Amino acid sequence: TLHYITILAVLPLMNLSLCTLSIKERATPDYMPFRRVIYCFYRLEAAQGVQTFSSPGYPTGYPAKSRCQWQIRASEENVIVLKFPFFHIEDDCFDDFVSIYDSLSPDDSQAITEKCGQRPPSNPLEVASSGNIMLINFITDTETQRPGFEAEYKAIPKTQVMRCGGVLSDKEGTFTSPRYPAFYPPAVDCKWTIQVCNTPFLPVKFNMFRIKEPGVDVRKCHKDYVEIMGTKYCGEMSSLAVTSISNSLTVIFHSDESYTDKGFSAHYSAYDPSNPCPNTFACRSGLCVGKELKCDGWNDCGDMSDETQCKCAKDQFACDNGLCKPKFWECDGVNDCGDWSDEKQCSCEENEWRCGDGECLPQDVVCDSKRDCDDGSDEASCKSCKSQSCALFFFFKCKDGECVNKVNAECDRVNDCSDESDEVGCGCGTRPYKLNRIVGGQNAAFGEWPWQVSLAYQTTGHACGASILSETWLLSAAHCFATFDTNYGVPSNWQTYSGMQDLYKFDGVQQRSLKRIITHPDYNRMTFDYDIALLELSKPLEFTNTIQPICLPASSHVFPAGMSCWITGWGALREGGQKAQILQKASVKIINDTVCNVVTEGQVTSRMLCSGFLMGGIDACQGDSGGPLACFEESGKWFQAGIVSWGEGCARRNKPGVYTRVTKLRDWIKKETGI
Ligand code: 4AZ
Question: Which residues bind Ca(2+) 1 (predicted)?
Fold first, then answer.
């Protein structure tokens, strides 16, 4: 069943000029029999004056399942400039996106950019073509009502857009990529020669540097780049500074035919020995750092000289050693000052009890068989006692219904339940293999993390991590499977590798295909809430010294803030970087929930927990998802506290990793697997 609704004239192949539009509507019988896809197509001619177009239904809201195209042409000596004064579509580019091409066909090798989400009017998206043609595609999938976009386009002389580079001889100056802060055009080359008299050094600082392109290794920068003194720079950098030890310097900028970005803005200033850091702070080491970085709690100079002799601000904690740290780091279980002073004064009044989240309550709340602290810590450390009531959250519930008031009673090698059910199913969490990136981690030894699994998608190889729960069940993250592309949810498209250390070595490795993928029914693709999946193997694993299950914590299990746990995976070794070949491990600390909520700006739910370091530097990254956050209990076993889920970038300051909280979903795991 195919029918067309034609609005205005049709047929894109006819040589039609301004604003010719055809909308086709047709059924898509493959996966949504009753959903129609709306197609629209426009041909526009750019002139010197600004003209506009907008997404269908703007500003009320664009329809789901639409495929719209705008082809823009200009006369030969011109290029096309396109600006979006208003842009608000779905946040997830998997669902809805705008892609812009430096050609008339949607050819990836000539893509200028692809965008989704919302942009503030202060930072509108603005791009330029390298020639006299441009194509805009708008693809939508979701039903969510978003206004769409408004676009302005015009033709400008090619010579004006491509103008860049030159000789700079003033004592100081600023230069930028072409059309900055708009996106630079594709296929442009610029060269700046800075030559200043009477200066021994010539420092150049990039205040903004964004030359990001999909599929580019920032160590190679084989596509768009800035080149200074023989080194190519690309990607996104918050602080790039280069100093020439002469009075001249050449800066080259190159953009290829595909994908452009905001580019850069750079400032140079001739070196004055009497004022080596004009308008910045002079570190003892000779480095200049932004004045605002002085006394901010971070060692920006590298020698701590920006963090000494500080008068702490109101929102800062004064460490005993003279450092200032953000106040919300106080009493979070992490030694931020370096001398523990931020963790020392954490007690309450003498007759009070301090809950794990810092709240002070009267002492008699402790072990009164009532949960007074939000985290249950007032009852968690009580002596083991058998209780008649099972109302308490942290009580371990035995199989026969008896409750044990003991923290983390399960699998601790002590029989606490009279039916001994707390020690049943505990053949987990041990590392029998006797041995003689994660960002900021180290290579793991063979057999060191026997529950770690690599999940490989079709022919593209390792995509996510998982952990072994039993011979037939693995635990992973829902977002590895529930994506825009339904193929990721098909079990036969995946292979699992257990007992692996090196992604290219298969000795001792057991490969299994998947029989079933169960993602949590409440998994939310926007918020990553309930990011958990259970994978049933098509054939049981045979446990060996290097293939073992990890223990699942009871829903009452407490992993206190400050506890050190381990993350493992073959994910990217740094943000935007390549995945690891050898399994990486890193130790991270459980972060207090209040702090977690502050640093994620309220984006965590009770199904999530934060772990890592607010200082940054050590974290899970892309490709580690689905892997375990494993914690060693003194009783001698490893328990899985979390599943690698999300985070803002990787290993950034104040942006710890966010994990699915396994205890919260323990009952769901039991319901689905019987484990
Ligand atoms: C990811 O993209 C991802 N830094 C996983 C973990 C983190 C960030 C991203 C945490 O799979």
Answer: 90, 96, 129
Ligand 1 center from residue 620 Cα (angstroms): 6
pTM above 0.90, yes or no: no
Q: List residues near ligand 1 (CB under 6 A).
A: 619-622, 624-625, 644, 646-647, 650, 657
Out of 332, 342, 416, 531, pick the active-site residue: 531
The ranges assigned to domains in the chain are: 38-159, 163-269, 452-537, 563-673
Active site residue 531: yes
- Tell me: pLDDT of 265 over 50: yes
Assigned superfamily of 38-159: Spermadhesin, CUB domain (2.60.120.290)
| pLDDT at residue number 224 | 96
**DSSP per position, 76-103:** TTEEEEEEEEEEE--S-TTTSEEEEESS
Classified by CATH at the fold level, domain 563-673 comes out as: Thrombin, subunit H (2.40.10)
Q: How far is the CA of 211 from the centre of ligand 1 (A)?
A: 21
341 φ/ψ angles, rounded to the nearest 5 degrees: -65, -25
For the annotated binding site for Ca(2+), the residues are 90, 96, 129, 143, 148, 224, 256, 258
Query: For 613-638, how does the pLDDT look when each residue is reduced to its tens digit (9 = 90+)?
Result: 888 889 999 999 999 999 998 888 99
Same fold, 452-537 and 563-673: yes
**Which CATH fold would you assign to the domain 163-269?**
Jelly Rolls (2.60.120)
Q: How many CA atoms lie within 13 A of 217 on its CB side?
A: 6
At residue 15, does pLDDT exceed 90? no
What is the distance between the alpha carbons of residues 30 and 42, in angstroms, rounded to a whole number? 27
- Ligand 1, from 439, 611, 625, 629: best to mutate by most atoms within 8 Å of Cβ? 625
Distance 19 CA to ligand 1 centre (A): 43
CA of 139 to the centre of ligand 1 (A): 26
Residue 122 φ/ψ, nearest 5 degrees:
-75, -15
- Name the active-site residue from 476, 556, 625, 645: 625
List the beta strands (DSSP E) in 434-492: 442-443, 452-457, 461-468, 473-476
- The yes-or-no verdict on residue 386 having pLDDT over 50 is no
